[in-house]
Design goal:
Oligomer: single chain
Helix content: 55-70%
Largest sheet: none
Number of domains: 2
Distance between the termini: 66 Å
Shape: elongated
Mean pLDDT: 84
Length: 136
């Protein structure tokens, strides 16, 4: 069986090299940066790999939601509009409460979001708006 170079390359990357390729942006081809499945695989391993995906993927709400649901640390490098989106922040904080740190100030003042983040990781309380930290 003969594999095309693209199929072979994808198979190797998904095995763990994806993160390295996407974290070294100058070495990642446009093909890789635009490949939704490959980029999502990278983000699952290293949330901040979202930063090295194509501009189109970084602005795609459904892709960003998938990324933060797979690895909440993607919120750290998500565009500000997503850091201010209650659904995106809730998805990110569900598994990684401390990523509340990267949410907008408005989201840090949301009682529901802070409760979700703290339920996931108690230390997330330090990133909540002062009024919520102080119980006021």
């Amino acid at each position: 069986m003969v594999l095309s170079s693209g199929v072979l390359f994808r198979s190797i990357c998904v095995g763990g090299i994806v993160t390295l390729l996407l974290s070294e942006q100058q070495h990642a081809s446009d093909y890789i940066k635009d490949d939704r499945d490959l980029c999502l695989a990278a983000v699952r391993q290293y949330g901040r790999a979202l930063k090295f995906t194509s501009a189109d993927l970084q602005q795609d709400p459904s892709f960003v939601r998938e990324c933060v649901a797979a690895n909440g640390w993607a919120l750290a490098v998500a565009k500000s509009e997503f850091q201010n989106d209650p659904q995106v922040v809730m998805l990110a904080c569900t598994g990684h409460g401390s990523v509340l740190k990267f949410a907008s100030e408005k989201m840090k003042a949301s009682r529901d979001l802070v409760l979700k983040a703290v339920a996931s990781q108690g230390s997330a309380l330090q990133y909540a708006a002062p009024g919520l930290r102080n119980g006021t």
